[in-house]
Write a structure and sequence with these properties.
GO terms for molecular function: metal ion binding; metallopeptidase activity. By secondary structure, the chain is of the alpha+beta class. The protein is about 45% helix and about 20% strand. The strands form 2 sheets. The chain has a 6-stranded mixed beta sheet with strand order 1-2-6-3-5-4, with helices on both faces. The chain has a 5-stranded mixed beta sheet with strand order 7-11-8-10-9, sandwiched between helices. Strand 4 and strand 5 form a beta hairpin.
Amino acid sequence: MKKRLLPMALLAASLFSVTAQEVDFEEYDLDNGLHVILQQDNTAPLVTTSVMYHVGSKDENPERTGFAHFFEHLLFEGTDNIKKGQWFKIVTANGGKNNANTTQDRTYYYEVFPTNNLELSLWMESERMLHPVINQIGVDTQNEVVKEEKRLRMDNQPYGQFASALFGNLFSKHPYRWPVIGSMEHLDAATLDEFLAFNKKFYVPNNAVLVVAGDIDKEKTKKMIADYFGPIPRGKDISRTHYKEDPITQTKRARFEDPNIQVPAILTAYRTPSMKERDAYVLDMISSVLSDGKSSRLYKKLVDTEKKAMEVGAFNYSLEDYGAYIIYALPLGGTSLDDLVAEIDEEIVKLQTELISERDYEKLQNQFENSFVNANSGVEGIAHSLARYYLLYGNTKLINEEIEIYRSITREEIREVAKKYLKPDQRLLLDYVPKEGGEN
């Protein structure tokens, strides 16, 4: 869960910081459709350059899953002007760092450099967009890298298949039903032409946002962006399929066997609305009430007081089209999974029938104020927030205004949204258990 508790002594400072810390930015479009966002902060000699592409695992062919994540790796292979294996060496040699990540909805690349290497970062990202080298050697190399990643993070990791088991049962029509890492069989079967076509379709300026944040001179930066990104041809407009799931009308029970665990787990999941909906913000707050910190309701009851669970958590996983509200618990001693479900349900019913106390409400607001400050405390976080709010929410101003949404949520809304979504007949119950005869 992304929210974290602060020591009480820091609360007053965080409230002041939220009021004082407004992110000033400028945004515009190039003729080729690339959206540009600039944020100038000259307090430290660092600059973050990032590009977020509107492509994730939900944009894949069901017979070729894993392409978006694969490209996260593949587009570090090299370009016409950056030789294979040199990308990371160039970044490190110039005092920088870089990374990338993929979700169901988008792919994000970024570099952090000393100020004097801003132009280098812009050139490298323009090279990635315009001149990537996509050949069979690179595909074969990254295929092995992705397979090893899957083995380490999923196949051989205890509870490593939580997400794939859960989403595979919670969604039946939407592409959220398959894991971001995809199928290794699909990647093995893919041809080079299929990879080239995927790149041509999605990794184009009109499907991306470029953010430059930190110690910059805006006018000089605009000139460099025009020089490096302006000549990149616009891609074809992307037509996206919108999938609508049938509502869940009765509890769905599923089972998954994991050979890497000894202790079973129970997962309950409810399908929830898009991250852009107000109710998604309310569900974030419900998560904090239930499981954020040792004083939260589920932890205090199941772990601390009754000692029926060794671990419990609740979080709202919001995505662009749908979301999932997830509660999980690992039993302690002879506690059954069904007993854990009953105990969790008791706490949910309390949320649905009773208003949280004024004291808990104030504590909740302080937690979200602090989270807001932390998210925008450095240029890396600011760059990511600006890109995300523009690309997925369609509203870059949320970097300053989202906290007002949380501030406006009432205790009554928390109760009503809990009633609306956290219903037993609208959920998945997933028994995540040791595999019979497994090594562990």
